[in-house]
Design goal:
With about 290 residues, the chain is of the alpha/beta class. It has 13 helices and 9 strands. It has a 9-stranded mixed sheet, with helices on both faces.
Length: about 290
Amino acid sequence: MNQKHSGRLPDLSNKTITFIGAGNMASSLIGGLIADSYPAQRIVASDPSSTKLADLSARYGIQSAASNEEAVAQADVVVLAVKPQLLHQVVEPLTALVQKHQPLVVSIAAGVREEAIQRWLGGNISLVRTMPNTPAMIQAGATVLHAGDNVTAEQRDLAESIMRAVGLTIWVDEEASLDPVTALSGSGPAYFFLVMEAMEQAAVNMGITPESARLLTLQTALGASRMAIESSDGPSTLRQKVTSPGGTTERALSILEAGDIRTLFDKALSGAKERSIELSELLGNE
């Protein structure tokens, strides 16, 4: 993996970005782009729901298209922001327009491999596949990207500028790396929610009020995350620094280790990776 670090990307604000689909992720990306001063008149959205389109237009001042075809006809980049199981039926009618105009295509449809998208759109298109996660909806996401063979350096910058509007971006050299990434960052927020849920319930069981248990759990999770982000030390070193010999933290950690927590996480992420591969095969065989 290789990460594009902080520092402004080239000015790409003369490019028209079209979003096929106006759901939560598209809305988050559009909001992030507008917050980064991307010109609203250069953003177009299409969606079967006129209510969603009206809401986005009113909130951000972007353009709305009457159809996917109209949206793609004016696009330098097309962001596929539809449910994975609907992607085939949505993109196939756009094949002729995509082949004619040759926009960059950015897919945020989880689990749909590049080979399938290329096949559905007629092949030889510039395609970037991405794996964002749900914290992107609050501009705190982690997105991993893979560029197909036809993607130019400028198109890579454009894809990155879109996804960086909602958080951190990392590129991978092999598309197959997106399966373990899905297991880690794609599904990862749920793992932390489960840990917080378990800690909160344990606190209530010990007599702490539900409201206090929730607030203390959330603030502790936030504080630990910020310490890990801002420190030059890794999690192992940070854990050792807050664990006094013979103290309460050591007792709790020894119980977690005795329960083989590391093996559980290894099995859990491996299972998620395997399921990602299975779903990709199912979706691509349509």
